[in-house]
Amino acid sequence: MSKDTSAAAEPWTIESALKRLPEKPVEDSESAVPFFHQVGQLKTIRRSGWIQHGVSGRIESVAEHSHRMACLAMFAPPNLDRDKCMRMCLIHDLAESLVGDITPRDGVSKPEKQRREMTSIDYIAKRLLGNVQGGAHGDDLRAIWHEFEEGKTPESKFANDLDKIELLLQMVEYEKREERKKDLGEFGYVATKVQTPEMKAWAQDILDERAQFWGKEAHARDDTLDAKAKMQSDEYYG
Q1: CA 140 to each of CA 40, 72, 118, 143, 225: distance values in angstroms, whole numbers, following the listed order
Q2: Residue 194 to residue 74: CA distance in whole angstroms
Q3: What pLDDT is stored for residue 231 in this prediction?
Q4: Domains of the chain from N-terminus onward
Q5: Of 86, 84, 81, 47, which is closest to residue 67 (Cα–Cα)?
Q6: Which helix (H) or strand (E) holds 78?
Q7: Long-range contact set of residues 174-181: C-beta below 8 Å, sequence gap at least 24
Q8: 3-state secondary structure of 61
Q9: Backbone φ and ψ of 46, nearest 5°
């Protein structure tokens, strides 16, 4: 998603988001099929951060990011509800099917980003799932999404860490694909935001792998980022 600097830019609304879709979803249906189609939009949305940093070639979709997160959640510690963690990972970016992938560079404040995403989740839960089996699936989806966003429960803390772990994995994979021609070390700063002990260990393993890949060749690390990059990341990830 790119920043809109036009003074005449219209404020984001759910109506404006729906107009950008290839086809408006069928609303208030008793069938879950319109919801299934909406989920499919995530397969068409590329992760904007990589594009903004000039990564060449094919860029992962939001759906691919969520899928690997769910696979990582299979390794949830035994004290957590693994199924809930996996569901949380699968739907945590569902709002992006309407708002797009907003990054720290897009100039959208965190409160505004949250407003757009909450509005989108409410729309999906009410208008696409509200009449499906009495609305239970919509209520469940909205509750799990909010739990992830609030990040207070053990499952949501774990899932939020997985969001960062998946990013770190992709960072290293793109650097390897680019054969050290692209330094994506700015993304490594998210490792400092990981909370849970198990995920801190995974993050360190990934950073160690990256350090070995770069060897003695100069490359960016979290302690070499400029103040602006750190500020953007701090605001975005909290």
Answers
A1: 19, 22, 14, 5, 40
A2: 18
A3: 63
A4: 15-237 (1.10.3210.10)
A5: 86
A6: none
A7: 174/50, 174/55, 175/210, 175/213, 175/214, 176/213, 177/57, 178/55, 178/56, 180/213, 180/214, 180/217, 180/219
A8: strand
A9: -85, 150
DSSP per-residue letters across 144-190: HHHHHHHT-SHHHHHHHHHHHHHHHHHHHHHHHHTTTSS--GGGGGG
Q: Which residues of 162-186 are buried (b: 16+ CB within 10 A; e: fewer)?
A: bbbbbbbbbbbebbeeeeeebbbbb
The single residue listed with the structure tokens 């979803």 is 25
DSSP state of 22: S
Residues in the chain: 238
Identity (one letter) of the amino acid at 5? Answer: T
Separation between Cα atoms, residue 1 and residue 50, nearest integer Å: 11
pLDDT band at 229 (very low <50, low <70, confident <90, very high): low
- pLDDT tens for each residue of 82-100: 999 999 999 999 999 999 9
pTM recorded for the entire structure: 0.90
Tokens of 108: 């959208």
